[in-house]
Amino acid sequence: MSIKRRSLRRTAKIALAAALGLGLVACGGGGGGGQSEGAEGGGNNVVYYTTRPEDGLPELKTAFETANPGYTLEIIRGSSSDMVARLITEASAKQQKADVVEINSLPMSQLAEAGILAPLPSSITDALPDRTKAPDGTYAGTRYFGHYTPYNTNLVPEPEWPKSYMDFLKPYWRGQFIIGANDVEWAYQVYASMGPEKGLELFQQLAAQEPQIRDEGRGALAELIAVGQAKAAIMTLSYHVERREAKGLPIAGAPWDPPLLNIDWLATFNGAPNPDATNVFLTWFFSENGIATDAEIGFNRIGDDGTADALADPNLLILSPDTAELQSKAAEDFESVFGVQ
User: Fold this and answer.
1) What does the UniProt keyword field contain (predicted)?
2) Please, what are the domains in the chain?
3) How many whole angstroms separate alpha carbon 46 and alpha carbon 151?
4) DSSP secondary structure code for residue 63 in this structure
5) Which residue, 193, 236, 293, 325, has most beta carbons within 10 Å?
């Protein structure tokens, strides 16, 4: 099993790796891709680095280009660690390729720490809730996700259906649940809600329950549970459960208390090579049309009709770049306790 260490201390190491030549994948309008040594950015071309799943990227590209004739969107997709490494290396060498990046909270904190982000237009940030944007306006929230502890309602007797992940401490669940090798969002929720000392104790107690440590993605784990190949897991994203429930599959999810909102973040750069085209993209992306495009793909977006409800809980925790230090601590302890190297 392996997990990417999400510590800010990795920035120098991954930047060195990028200098040695990391490849990202270019996603075309037809959904195909190949290895890209660097984006070719013309004046009306927007180069967009993202960690989004490939499904939906062609639709995003088509929607932008249809709404903005004469402009093109070049999508470069890769892992968080590769993307941060490449962006920092390009900026240091004054060979910036990307105009825009959309990535999750810890990698965005590394980019902010590197000092390469530019303020977003105030016309965009002024319209966003305070908790979904950087205090200095350099990044803004985009897609958002809730979390569940998923379980199979046929395999698990109803009296044992978990009401929270704390129920996995019960004797019934010994050896019967999965912890994903990348479940660091859950680790953060534990540390943020109960503190690192008690959180570490909980990690150790759950490790003594002999969970299966698996490295499938969240959707794959939800599918294993929905089709009866596993009983339960510590976490998945809420939409993975809801979409399968809607299909009539025997899966349900216990909510987290307090809830955690996982947000992706978007930023642009001081050295963005196509600033005019970038502003066109940003304006569209945060417009009703851009948000509606993501809704058609199947994503919730900050600014949609559900945003107010998603942010309403007074105890809500948010995965944001400004909580990077605690996220990193939780991730490191998670790796240590659950034997993920």
Assistant:
1) Signal
2) 45-142+263-307 (3.40.190.10), 145-260+331-338 (3.40.190.10)
3) 42
4) H
5) 236
